[in-house]
Prior knowledge:
Rossmann fold, four-stranded antiparallel sheet
Amino acid sequence: MTLDLHGVQEGFADLALESQGVFRGALEALSRPGKIVECRRAATALALALLDQDTRLWLSPRAKREAMTLRFHTGCPIVEDAATAEFLLVADPAELPELDSLACGTDEAPHHSATVILRVASLDGGEGGWKLSGPGIQGTARLRAAGLGGAFAEQWKRNGKRFPRGVDVFLCAGDRLCGLPRTTLLED
């Protein structure tokens, strides 16, 4: 019997070294919201570094083409219901489920919440975009994420009000990523 691996993309060349590097980048992005971290194939690399055989993943319609790659390299189970997922890989902001519908943990176990890896067209700091404040940000920071507008900002405000429960988000654009932990405040 032959195994058809057509469609499986390459993983890490050096699993231990590269996954550790991506994990450190993810920690840096979450601990300093608004900071853009360079990471080759950011969304895919995050998924490869953070998922394992015990981590339920939901894929948006346009991200489903990556199912075989992620299952092959991580062994993660793919779920059909976003509300049951621990991680979500979303190919486009238009495919993002309502944050309120995702696992948000409990007051006793807030870490039992979903983490969203969301691809956006571009990420930029500096002027314009949202003003970010909260833990890990000295004063304020600025962030522009193409394709995320007022609807996301409203969902994010509701998400923050559930603290310590809530969803965390990684925004990814090509080889760049930025973390938005649930404690980050967004203002226009």
